[in-house]
Structures are given as structure tokens and as C-alpha cells.
Design brief:
Length: 52
């Protein structure tokens, strides 16, 4: 398998998409889910975020 410029670009884009998805999941859990279990008043925000 040759590592051409086209394959290298696809790998870089794939890694960037993976990082963005993981970061998004982390931020969602940090902001909404953990605060929900701490007893914070974010229930309405959580429901609105899930609806979007």
C-alpha cells in the first residue's frame, strides 16, 4: 500500500473528524450530564439540547 498525498489527506481528515466528535461528546457530558447528577438546575437545558 502506497502512502500517496490523497491517502494522507484522507487520514488527516479522518483523524480531525474523530477528534471533533470525541471533543463534542466530552463537552456534552461535562456540561449537561455531570451537572444533572450533581443536582444542578440544568434539566430544561438538557432536554432542549437533546431536542436540537
Amino acid at each position: 500500500m502506497e502512502l500517496t498525498l490523497e491517502n494522507l489527506i484522507k487520514i488527516i481528515i479522518g483523524v480531525l473528524v474523530f477528534v471533533v466528535v470525541v471533543l463534542g461528546i466530552y463537552l456534552f457530558f461535562r456540561i449537561y450530564v455531570i451537572e444533572f447528577f450533581r443536582g444542578g438546575n440544568v434539566t430544561a437545558e438538557l432536554i432542549l439540547a437533546l431536542i436540537k
